[in-house]
Write a structure and sequence with these properties.
Blueprint lengths: L2 H21 L4 H16 L2 H4 L3 E3 L11 H9 L3 E7 L5 E6 L5 E3 L5 E3 L14 E5 L2 E3 L5 E2 L5 H6 L8 E4 L5 E2 L13 E4 L2 E4 L7
Parallel strand pairs: 1-2, 1-6, 6-9, 7-10, 9-11
Antiparallel strand pairs: 2-3, 4-5, 7-8, 11-12
Helix pairs in contact: 2-4
Keywords: ATP-binding, Ligase, Magnesium, Metal-binding, Nucleotide-binding
GO molecular function: 5-formyltetrahydrofolate cyclo-ligase activity; ATP binding; metal ion binding
GO biological process, one term: tetrahydrofolate interconversion
């Protein structure tokens, strides 16, 4: 790894620590209100309402909660697929079929109990929703937790598919450090609204 990439990696680690520290101070009431606002902001979008197959995720810890969003998308008639973390840190996918269709996986994260559909299933999604710690407002680059799982998944997504990262307020920023393997998102969804990043907006 050259010096520039080492510096980017170190900057990412510092930024992750800062954001996780900030997230730990958000109270439970604020978390619930934020999750509701994000859900409503997304469900108001026609391209979300029309998406037949949605790749989402089951939030954990201090992430903006997706549990209500996943349920709402499913109730609105979308087929929702959720990730299953593989031993190689890539993401397999399985169908969500209501609250009783998820159970703790080997890593303690809730996963669908449905048959695994393969890592390439995300290629057929009409909408992709991913977690992030931060997103760069001008480039769309997202800061993940460092495992690279979602960058690998996003690399399989078609160029015209809307990709959305869910954030708390203050996490859409300028200057997210990036490395060659990082993948941008088109939108950042916050409680205050849905924001288009520097990636070309869909027509």
């Amino acid at each position: 790894m050259n010096r520039t990439l080492v510096e980017a990696s170190l900057d990412k680690s510092k930024l992750r620590r800062e954001i996780l520290s900030e997230r730990s101070r958000i109270d439970e009431i604020s978390r619930r209100e934020s999750a509701r606002a994000i859900r409503e902001n997304l469900l108001d979008q026609p391209w979300v309402q029309m998406a037949g197959l949605v790749a989402g995720y089951w939030s954990i810890g201090t992430e903006p909660s997706t549990h209500g969003l996943v349920f709402a998308l499913w109730k609105h008639g979308a087929t929702v697929i959720l990730p299953v973390l593989r031993p190689d840190s890539d993401l397999d996918w399985a169908v969500y079929d209501g609250p009783d269709s998820v159970a703790p996986g080997p890593f303690g994260i809730m996963e669908p109990v449905d048959t695994r559909r393969g890592v390439d299933t995300i290629r057929t999604a009409a909408l992709v929703i991913v977690p992030a710690l931060a997103v760069d407002r001008s480039t769309g680059m997202r800061l993940g937790r460092g495992g690279g799982s979602y960058d690998r998944a996003l690399a399989r997504v078609g160029p015209n598919v809307p990709t959305v990262a869910l954030l708390h307020e203050g996490e859409l920023i300028n200057g997210v450090p990036s490395e060659p393997h990082d993948r941008p998102v088109r939108y950042a969804a916050l409680p205050s609204g849905l924001f288009v990043t520097g990636v070309t907006e869909l027509s």
